Amino acid sequence: MIPRAIMQIDKIPLNQNSKVNKKALPPIALSKEEVILPHNEREKKIFEAAKAVLGDTGFGIKEDLFSFGLSSIGLMKFLTLLEDDLQEDFSTKEIKKAKTIEEIARISHAFSKLDTIQKDYPLTKTQEGIYVESLAHPSSTIYNVPLLEKPDKKISLEKLKTSIIKAINNHPYLKSKLVLGLSG
Known about the structure:
Blueprint: H1 41-54, H2 72-86, H3 92-98, H4 101-106, H5 125-136, H6 157-170
Helix pairs in contact: 1-2
C-alpha cells in the first residue's frame, strides 16, 4: 500500500508491549484547501456516517476512507449507519471499490432496502432436511427441545415478559411459519 500522506514526528509512541501505539499517533495534517466538504445531502449523510466510525480526522469527500483507518470491523459499522441513514443496502465490495465519500455517493440503488422484503422465502436445503426428518419422526424432540424454566423469585416477571417480546420483535424470523404451497 502506498501512503496517502507522510509527515515527520519527533517520537513514535509505543504501547506497553513496545509496539506502535497507532491511537497515540498525531492525526495527518492536511491543509484546509485540500479538504473538500460535502456538497449535497447524500454526501453529508455519508460523511457523518464515516465521521461516526473514524472520528473527526480531518478528511473530506475525496479522501480514501481506508487510508484514514476504516478497518473491516469499522466497515461493518459504516454499512449499518449508511443503511439506517439512506435506507439503501450497500455491499462491502461497493464500498471497497468506491473508497471515497464522493464515489460512494455516486452509487445508485434503483430500489430502497425497504422494497426488497419478500413475502415468501423458500426453504434452504438444511431446513428441508429438518422438515423431512420432523415428518418422519413426529414424536422426536431432536430439533425442538422442550424446556421448563422456573424463574427465581427475585426476577420481575413483567420485565422478563417485556424482554422476551422485544427479543422476538427484534428477530422477525422467530415469528415465521412454515406453509406448504401447491408445489410442496
